[in-house]
Each structure stands twice: as structure tokens, then as C-alpha cells.
Amino acid sequence: MSLDPIILRDIIDRALIEDLGTGDITTQSIVSDNYVTIGFIRSKEPGVVAGLAVAKEVFLHLSPEISFQARVRDGDRVIAGQLLARVEGDARTILSGERVALNFLQRMSGIATRVAGLLTLIEGQKSKLTDTRKTTPGLRVLDKYSVRVGGGCNHRFGLYDAILIKDNHIKVAGSISEAVSRAKSRAPHTMGIEVEVESLEGVEEAIRAGAHTVMLDNMDLETMKKAVDLVNGRALLEASGSVNEQNIMDIAKTGVDLISVGGLTHSVKALDISLDVGEMKPIAGVMI
After folding, report:
1. How far is residue 47 from each of residues 71, 105, 110, 132, 222, measured CA to CA in Å?
2. Nearest Cα to 129, choosing from 245, 281, 20?
3. pTM to 2 decimal places
4. Alpha-carbon Rg of the chain, whole angstroms?
């Protein structure tokens, strides 16, 4: 797993411009530009780490002289108080980049931690856990990367890389069959078609129309089980809607292939991570 450096650079550019503006007036007022220090990044609670490379690039973007040494890897489970990384160099740079670096690291680790937690609850079942497009605008690539770090799978990235026919599309087309037919007439032969349905009748119509995946939208468990029997492997089945820690195992036991959870990214709790600086020291040879 890796992040495109060009896309990552653009995301970090925008984040730093938003935070720094014309400069970090607090740090510039208090800290001499002739001082170096070491910053220690630690997790304050247990979780799964994601985003170390992003945090590193934030500091390097501000100064290529900064040394960033990760002590764990993305995907590692950590405990409270564990050292995640050591940042060394210009004190002003470290203090000015701290918040942006931590914002990325905390959010991404929070997503990875939530994914890993849900996967633990459905261990032994065939269902795969997948994300949705309910991501923070402008940060989708980071959100979806974090889902993979946590062990989950990515659904379509955007509106351009997969066809998902939802209720409003069906309403406009007049029926599931007509919506699938129109989609097939435009879709490349390599692209599958998914249809969102709310009933067993909808499942059957979607299968007859040639859908490759059928999304069971907010169905109760008994109806999901019937849908699995009805489809009998003719298409992938995705359960979606109101999935949480309390019901995810029951959903997985119905035999669905995929379980999509918008809450992996749209309302995730950030992992509590901090950066504490050590002693401030003047640069060797510089008169203070």
C-alpha cells in the first residue's frame, strides 16, 4: 500500500496554507530561529497506526533538513504511551508543523483502529468489510488508504470508476431493469454494475437484469438470509445501512459477501496522539 506522492503533496500544501497562512506568529515570537529540538510523537491510547508517512512529509515539506524516524509501521497495533516517531531539527519547523502532522495522523489512525475493531468482531466469517464515499471532502485518498491499513477493503473511489445504481436512479429510469439496461449501454465491458435494492423482489429483478453486485439497503436479518438463498452465488451481495458493533456479526452470519460501513470514515473518532518537544538547544557554532 502506498500513497501517490503528487496527490499527497497537494493535500499537504492545502493543509499547511490553511494553518500557517502568512506564518506561525506565536512560534516566531517566542522561539529563536537558531534553536533545534527533538519532538516525540506518542499514542495516548491503544489503537492501530496509520499516516506516519503523511506526518513525515508535513515536516519535510516545511524543511528538508528535518529528521523523522518512525518507530512503528502503518498497521501496527500500539499501546498507550508508545513512541510512534521521533522528529529532530529546527525547533520552529517542528512546532509549526505539529498540528497539521498530528491532524492527519490522528484521523488516519482513528479510521484504521475502527476498521480493525470491527474486523475482530466478524473474524471467521467470509464477509469483507468495506468503506463508502462518505469521506471528508479532499481527503478521500487518505481515508481509503487508512481503511486498507486497518484491514478493510475499498468500495468505489468515486463516481467514475464503478456503476452503483441507487434508488433515485431507479426512480428516474422507471425500474431496476431499465436502469441496468441504460447503464450496460454505456459501461465498458470491464466494469461491473451494482444495484441498491430494498426488497426481495428488487433482488430478483436486479439479478434478472444482469447486476454483478446487489446492495441490500437497510434490510432486516431475516430478509438478508432469504436474499442470500435467493441469489445463491449468482452475484455478490453487499449489506449496507445502520451497521454497528452490536449487529455486525449477525449480519456477517447471514452469508453476505460484503458489509459496507459509512461510519468508518464519516464520523470516526480520532486516535489520541501527541507531540512533546525535548530540550531546546542552540545550533552548534551559532552565537545566541
Report:
1. 15, 12, 8, 22, 34
2. 245
3. 0.94
4. 23
Tell me, yes or no, if 281 is annotated catalytic. Answer: no
* Residue 207: alpha-carbon gap to chain centroid: 31
Catalytic residue among 71, 133, 134, 156: 134
The pLDDT profile of the chain, 288 residues, written as one tens digit per residue, is 789 999 999 999 999 999 999 999 999 999 988 999 999 999 999 999 999 999 999 999 999 999 999 999 999 999 999 999 999 999 999 999 999 999 999 999 999 999 999 999 999 999 999 999 999 999 999 999 999 999 999 999 999 999 999 999 999 999 999 999 999 999 998 999 999 999 999 999 999 999 999 999 999 999 999 999 999 999 999 999 989 999 999 999 999 999 999 999 999 999 999 999 999 899 864 444
Taken as a whole, the chain contains a residue count of 288
Q: Which domains are present in the chain?
A: 5-118+270-282 (3.90.1170.20), 162-264 (3.20.20.70)
Task: Check if 226 is active-site.
Answer: no
Say which of 198, 204, 217, 272 is annotated catalytic.
Answer: 217
Q: Quote the CA–CA distance of 288 and 276 in Å, as a whole number.
A: 24
Separation CA 108–CA 247 (nearest Å):
24
Q: Catalytic one among 42, 166, 184, 225? A: 166
196 catalytic per annotation:
yes
- Unique residue bearing C-alpha cell 493535500: 11
Catalytic: which of 131, 196, 238, 257? 196
What is the three-class DSSP state of 58? helix
Looking only at Cα atoms, what is the longest distance across the chain?
80
Which of the following is catalytic: 42, 99, 182, 226?
Answer: 99
